[in-house]
Amino acid sequence: MTENKKVLVAEDSSVIINLTKNVLLFEKYRITAVKNGKQVLEKLLNEDFDLILMDINMPVMDGIECTKTIRALEDKNKANIPIVAITGNYKNYTLDDFKKAGLNDYIQKPLDYDLLLATVRKHLS
């Protein structure tokens, strides 16, 4: 059941945030959005999430650095949350780079919203 699943969207583009929110809200996911990795860490201090959609290129703290920080958290539930990279620069990274950083999966930009939904479902089932 998706109704109580909480997804944290970390993305600096308001357009992508809004489109992603619309797709996921239609499926009854609860969505919180932030604009950089530092805000992700602040949200994780006070809330629990079932999945993080993490843009790789964000200001203040990028998605790779943020993911590594999350994986090092003492709270093992939070440290092990599924994190899916969202990136337009996937050619600069290999799947191995993402795995080494602790990312569970990745989706390329421009986003295919059917693939986004399928990926979210895969990690939350």
TrEMBL record:
List modified residues, type 4-aspartylphosphate.
D55
Q: Which Pfam families match?
A: Response_reg (PF00072)
Q: Which residues form the signal peptide?
A: none
Q: Which residues form a coiled coil?
A: none
* Keyword terms, alphabetized: Phosphoprotein, Two-component regulatory system
Top-level taxonomic group: Bacteria
Query: Which intervals hold domain Response regulatory?
Result: 6-124
Read off the InterPro entries from this record: CheY-like_superfamily, Sig_transdc_resp-reg_receiver
What's one GO BP annotation on this UniProt entry?
phosphorelay signal transduction system
Protein name, UniProt field: Response regulator
Q: Tell me the organism.
A: Aquiflexum gelatinilyticum
Taxonomic classification, please? Bacteria, Pseudomonadati, Bacteroidota, Cytophagia, Cytophagales
